[in-house]
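Predict the 3D structure for this chain.
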Amino acid sequence: MHLVIGGAYQGKLRWAAAHFQLSDADIFTCTDSAPVDFSRRCIYHLEAFALGCARRKEDPIGIFRAAYPAWADSIFICEDIFCGVVPIERESRAWREAAGQLATYLADRAETVTRLFCGLEQRLK
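Done. Predicted structure below.
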């Protein structure tokens, strides 16, 4: 399993598509209202999934643990919303915490963790 993180508009999906030879059919884009399709090779916008979990007061890590065998070889892409100034709004803080905890959970289990900044890759693990 591979985790790709970075800020908005830093080239994460473009890099992952080239690096892992992904087609459009390989990529599932998360929303805050739909379950994750673990049958796809690449799960994009994990932070949107975390937002839905925060709103519904669900544990994103519990959802991932329950689905483990289905995503063992996946590529996850998450926008870095878990750094910087802590938001004032309760929902925004809960979202940021859920996204950060999920990214930490996945990073612990990942074969590689890559951060993208200005389209440049930085290997973290």
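The mean pLDDT is 95.
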